[in-house]
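Course assignment 3, question 2. Fill in each field.
Student: A.L.
Task: Predict the tertiary structure for the chain below.
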Amino acid sequence: MRLAKYLAHAGVASRRASEEIVAAGRVTVEGTTVTDPAREVSDSSLVCVDGRPLDGPETRVAYMLNKPLGVLSTASDERGRPTVVELLGHDGARLYPVGRLDGQTSGLILLTNDGELANRLTHPRFEVPKTYRARVGGGPVGAAALQALREGVELEDGPTSPARVRRLGPQELEITIREGRNRQVRRMCEHVGHPVRDLVRTRFGPLRLQGLAPGEHRRLTPAELGSLRAL
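Answer field:
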């Protein structure tokens, strides 16, 4: 197994972040510093990060959380603000969120110790769909705004891909995107004259936010994990 993959499976970080950790010289294998993320190691290898021995690959798990407003999509915060990892408590697994929801967006977020799965779910190449319910200002949403969102709008970091959009009410939309830009849905709606007042992620790939109150979580079933890996 390649070293970066080993670190990801051990719950150290995502595959991409693990490559950076190795390149920074923070990893030793059998007492020797290694800077090549492609270095082959086995489950019996003595691997240390910052001098701390790893126990080897953890059992890979993933959880669905209904993120409340004001909670950060990170493992820790230097200012002591609440994070999604803290909401799950500690069961021995080193979990980190899959992608991000900004502090004022609530809803479905995944947490896992499977770096390879996290990378596949967030990498633009795989175009995993994410669905949001947005309550917007600016008056009733008209046909022109809907068409613009469906065709893609020009943002400061480039045009967006076409989105799937349907109107749930005069000022309520369901929007599905396959990109993961920072605050993308908010910026798209702002661009067409309908700033977001409330935003909830309701789906991530095949998973739906159902049966979980804000702050509640549950472990994904083997079937759900299989459906994510098959995307």
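Instructor remarks: The first helix runs from residue 3 to 9. The two ends are 23 Å apart (CA to CA).
Grade: pending
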